[in-house]
DNA sequence: TTAATTTACTAAAACGTTTTCGTCAATACG
DNA sequence: CGTATTGACGAAAACGTTTTAGTAAATTAA
């Protein structure tokens, strides 16, 4: 392993000078800087991250806390898109990412402990139970944190505009003449509450009364649970003419139920999804859905995190807007 | 930050003793070990990974090289499953994982350099272009490597039994009476070659001649390219009665083409996928496909990697077997 | 000319561990 | 009883950086 000392010998200067030259200190003469940099790359020098960290307490590493009760965190396309974007933005900023878990090795260790152990400079948190004591411990600690789709008072957060998304989809269905609109929503998280609010606003604006049976809870990303919810809706005396699904993926569960009853989309029933993932574009019928800008969400969270790691930045709630994606899963409904 | 010194003061022993007590050296008396461990947890001590690494040259960190030309590495369900499994197995072994890339910060850095910089103890490589000079540099270096679905002479590798998978699917189609069987395969990687071999073997055993037009190349995980390939097949004078698709996801592209021509699966045409991901189970019709044990593949690669990091292990090619998943996308074909 | 300032560099300590040699009792052996 | 051996611990160096405080020479100011 070639170290700073090797360079210093080769150049006939002290290690201190090499370090400064490499790190762009102004007090080193241009010629020396040149010389040092040249020999550094000649010797194929790589700084030792551990040694640097030990001195500076900066790991250039950001933690990613992306867990899920169902452990589908990584296979959930929406979250993998965020993860991917976080990773790339982190990398262009010179950071690597580390997954934060709480059972490293055989022994139990809290999220915060894991962060400390790996000296993460900051953490991006998404898709977790934000009431979890360990999450709270981390959030309240001194490590910089940015949360996704959940806001704490004194912290920066990046949120997708869930209220708007649900509002727009519901409004669209209403505009198309639907009056019996059901909403299969996910577990009652903050995200879900926002969407329900958006849905309700659209209904109100269109003078539509939504019976309680039209609001049914299922689990995000769980095709089976959504299929059951769909079945319940179709079994009603007055089944809906349109259904909003919790997300694009789990919609497929609903689709199965609909098909198996010999119904067709959108002729007999109109549907829309949520997320706007790749899958929704290739499905047939193509899904009318709401695109969440996962890429932007990831990018912004890293940007904000880096800001609060490197400088002093004020806590800020950033809203990332989505986009209505039309497909052919909704048909105009002519009330009889 | 509480260090070993704090513990040593509290206990009235030297730092050396604390270190040894914590690391289970035999030369420390049981009582001292007890005392040290108790005060360590009382003070909420966390070892400093950087300091330890600096001394021991062991980071407890394994690199993951999972890139894709199409950058869909993380959103590809099959690979996210592997990634997830790698992550979990690594964690239970006390390792964290780091994504290896070649453009950390603003400056270009080779995969190997990145590994060195982060002191990865070993690397798992999958889903990359194994001819890439940078990959080769890493593979030939002194850092322990395990490859997935590709084998180098002197290295351990974990491979899914691609030949068997394609063989079984093709045989099944033949058993069901199909004689005009097409195979839309992926780009000509090693994996693809194996599958083609399996396919061909099945055809041969069943005395089926496969015209060249029935073997068409598309891109993995690319619904659009697969749709086009499907169209080409359906345009033939003698279109196939059964099609094997490159993977479950991209099959949806083919499905779209089939549906839009007013054909039905499996009545008019039989299909099967590959991978056996979640999606294939909830699709309608449910897909007949080959399940690749992503979980096992991830686990085994970490196991093997840790083995070669911690002890001396011989290079070994490990084959992970899959499983035939029947669905209802294949129908018995009565030759006229 | 002398004093003050600037420039370009260096010595050395420090970061928190691990690990190699010691050391010094206590015990075992001949 | 004297000598090995063992058991339990400590001193100190080392890992590769960064950074503070300094120094000597060169330049500028008075």
What portion of the residues of chain A fall into strands of 2 or more residues? Answer: 5-15%
Q: What value does the average pLDDT of chain A take?
A: 93
Structural class of chain A: alpha/beta
The quaternary state of the protein chains shown equals: homodimer
Largest interface, with Cβ-Cβ < 8 Å?
A-B, 52 and 52 residues
| Mass-distribution shape of chain A | elongated
Please tally the β strands of chain A and state the result.
12
Low-confidence stretches of chain A: none
Note the main sheet of chain A.
6 strands, parallel
**Element string of chain A (H = helix, E = strand):** HHHHEHEHEHEEHEHEHEHEHEHEE
List the strand order in the largest sheet of chain A: 2-1-3-4-5-11
Write the layout of secondary structure elements.
Two copies of one chain form a homodimer.
Chain A: H1 4-11, H2 15-22, H3 30-42, H4 49-56, E1 61-65, H5 77-92, E2 96-99, H6 111-117, E3 122-125, H7 133-140, E4 145-148, E5 156-160, H8 162-175, E6 181-185, H9 190-205, E7 215-217, H10 223-234, E8 242-244, H11 248-260, E9 270-272, H12 278-282, E10 289-291, H13 294-310, E11 317-320, E12 323-325
Parallel strand pairs in A: 1-2, 1-3, 3-4, 4-5, 5-11, 6-7, 6-8, 8-9
Antiparallel strand pairs in A: 10-12
Helix pairs in contact in A: 1-2, 1-3, 5-13, 8-9, 10-11
Chain A binds a DNA duplex (30 and 30 nucleotides) through residues 1, 3-5, 13-17, 19-20, 23, 27-29, 32, 47-48, 50-57.
């Amino acid at each position: 392993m070639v170290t700073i000392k090797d360079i210093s010998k080769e150049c006939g200067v002290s290690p201190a000078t090499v370090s400064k030259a490499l790190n762009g200190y102004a007090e080193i003469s241009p010629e020396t800087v040149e010389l040092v940099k040249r020999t550094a790359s000649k010797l194929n020098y790589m700084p030792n991250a551990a040694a640097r960290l030990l001195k500076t307490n900066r790991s250039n590493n950001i933690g990613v806390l992306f867990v899920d009760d169902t452990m589908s965190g990584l296979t959930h396309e929406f979250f993998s898109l965020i993860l991917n974007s976080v990773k790339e933005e982190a990398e262009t900023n010179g950071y690597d990412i580390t997954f934060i878990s709480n059972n490293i090795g055989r022994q139990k260790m809290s999220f915060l402990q894991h962060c400390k152990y790996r000296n993460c400079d900051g953490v991006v948190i998404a898709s977790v139970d934000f009431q979890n004591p360990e999450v709270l411990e981390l959030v309240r600690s001194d490590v910089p944190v940015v949360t996704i789709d959940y806001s704490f008072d004194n912290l920066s957060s990046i949120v997708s505009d869930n209220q708007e998304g649900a509002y727009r989809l519901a409004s669209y269905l209403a505009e198309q003449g639907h009056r019996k609109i059901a909403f299969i929503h996910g577990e009652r998280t903050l995200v879900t509450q926002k969407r329900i609010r958006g849905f309700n606003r659209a209904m109100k604006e269109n003078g539509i009364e939504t019976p309680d049976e039209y609001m049914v809870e299922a689990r995000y990303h769980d095709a089976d649970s959504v299929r059951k919810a769909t079945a319940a809706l179709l079994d009603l005396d007055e089944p809906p003419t349109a259904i909003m699904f919790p997300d694009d993926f789990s919609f497929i569960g609903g689709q199965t139920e609909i098909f198996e009853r010999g119904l067709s989309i959108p002729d007999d029933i109109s549907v829309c999804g949520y997320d706007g993932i790749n899958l929704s574009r290739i499905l047939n019928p193509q899904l009318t859905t709401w695109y969440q800008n996962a890429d932007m969400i990831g990018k912004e969270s890293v940007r904000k995190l880096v800001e609060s790691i490197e400088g002093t930045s004020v806590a800020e709630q950033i809203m990332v807007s989505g986009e209505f994606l039309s497909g052919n899963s909704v048909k105009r409904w002519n009330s009889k």
